[in-house]
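To fix ideas, we now present one chain and its tokenised fold:
***
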Amino acid sequence: MNWNKSIRQIHRWLSIAFTVTVIANFVAMGMGQPPAWIVYSPLPPLFLLLFSGLYMFVLPYTTKWRSARSTSV
């Protein structure tokens, strides 16, 4: 199983979940004072997006570092 491919797929699905929760948040705010669980519902996917996004951001640098290290040895 390719971890990079899985992380990218998880990141895509998390972005969809985050978008849906933000839209639901705006709809609930349009109807009046929403409950706290609706207001804070975008936060869990957002934090998971942060971690998967940081992983994908650092990935090219780590592969570059690993390839440079293996060629120098």
